Every structure is written in structure tokens, then in C-alpha cells.
Amino acid sequence: MNAETLQIFVTVAEQKNFSRAAKLLHLSQPGVSLHIRNLEQELDAKLFHRSPQQVKLTEAGGLLYERAKRILSLMEEARESIHSLQGEVTGSLKLGASFTIGEYLLPRVLAEFAAPHPRVDIEVTIGNTGEIVQGVRDNALDLGWIEGETAYPELTVEPVMQDDMILIASPDHPLALERSVPPERLNDQVWVLRELGSGTRAVSDRFIGSYDLRMQRTFVLNSSQGVKEAVAAGLGIAMLSRWTVRKELESGDVSRIPLSCGRILRDFALIQRKDAADSLAKRKFIQYLMAFAAEHTI
């Protein structure tokens, strides 16, 4: 029994699926299966109930899982403690970010963090909010930085900064030429929306629902860049984060619709599992993220 085999076992247990575990570990599925078979032979115990739908821990597997998590955590802690004596932060981080954050904010934090911490390996996953939340829940991600809201009992959710959502249109759109637009003027407009599961889509839906707006037609795109391009081309209006459209506003490719109802704010939140292993690399990264958030408070 070695650390690599224990990590493979823990990943299969958490993913409840050999294929997903193999993908996360960058191994072949047969290779993962072989490790598990060898471990079961070594312990002379069946560790998983296997079925086409799901892989579940046996009673023996449950006992090993709890102890394997502790062993791996202690090994990582020992490694970090030794390196900290030499003034180094080491380890690995699997970070997840929803699209707006991952494309417009996270790269800045990574640039500031990576330079003084060259021995921390970082893997980033960018997806919509729902995908990142699921990745953290499945232990595929150490941390998630998301737009919008989520509520699962196994997660901690810590708002770290606020985002300003704005309504945009092409520069020659009639609403973009007005000085103040009441929400009722938005009836019977064509809307360009993000996909379901997106934090941006959730804010748009909430705004449209709160004023009971009629939509003439909708187009759904799965990226903010696609939404911006569609709006600039005159397809319709859209609600996006101020972070995503700063350059387009400056260049005049899109214009802001000046709403009379005031600002529309949402939280950017840091999420992780309550039972997640701690590490010096994770703590240091969170410090950099919090410093960035404090500098960009709106």
C-alpha cells in the first residue's frame, strides 16, 4: 500500500465512478481498476460494490476511506512543514471559477500569486456556476470562486466581493440613447441570455421576473464573449458583469442602458467543502484572493 494507490482509492470513492476518477487522475481506466484490484488483494477485502450505474463503498471500504484521507492529509502536512522550514510554499491546487471570474478576474490573482510561489502547481477549471459548485461538491476542486448563489450543507460559502451588473445594447439602440430608462420600458425587447446554470443568467432571470417583463424573443449563448458580440451586432439587449464589458464600453462597441432603478449587485463567493483538507498553499492563495477583492471593492 502506497500513497499513489491510496490517492487513487480515495478519488474513486469520492467520484463514485472509475471513468471520472481516471480522468481526474490523468490515468487510464484499466490502470485505475488494476490499482483497486491490487489493493483489495493486499487487504483481502472487497472495497467497492460495483454496478453499471454507480460504485459504492463497502463497509471495509468506508473504514479505509476515512483512514486514507487522514494518511494523505498527514503526508501533505509533513511535506509542507518540511518545505516551510526552507521558506517555500509547495503543493498543488485545483481551482474552479465561473466564466466571468475565470476569464476576467482569476488570471490577475494567479499572476500575483504564481510569481512568488513557483513550487505550487495550479490547475484551473472554468465553467458555469453550477458546474463549479458540483466540482467542489465532488472533491474534484479544492476551491471554487463563483458568481451567484448556492446552498449545500457540505459547502462553506464566503462572499468576497460584489459585482456590478449592467444592461447593454448596441450603440444605436434607442434605449442606449436615453438618459434614464425605467424598467417598464424594457417590455417587448429581444434579450440575449447566458445558458441555464450560469450565475449571469440567474441575475438576468431574477431582474426580468421582478419587473414581470415581456420578452419579444430570446437568444441563449453559453459565453459572455458570445453575448457581447451578439449585442454589438444589434441582436438584442443583455445583462452582463461590468468586468466583462469594460473594453467594449471604452471602444464604443456597446453602450450601457442607463436604468432608473439603481444598481444591480451580486456577490462573488469563495466556496469549499467543510471537510476539505487544509494546506499552506490553499491558505496563501486565499490571502491573495482576499487582498485582490479588497482592492476592487465597489
TrEMBL record:
One Pfam assignment: LysR_substrate
The HTH lysR-type domain, residue ranges: 1-58
The keyword Lyase appears for this protein: no
Transmembrane segments: none
UniProt keyword annotation of Transcription regulation present: yes
Sorted UniProt keywords: DNA-binding, Transcription, Transcription regulation
Similarity-based family: Belongs to the LysR transcriptional regulatory family.
Protein name, entry field: LysR family transcriptional regulator
Originating species: Paenibacillus gyeongsangnamensis
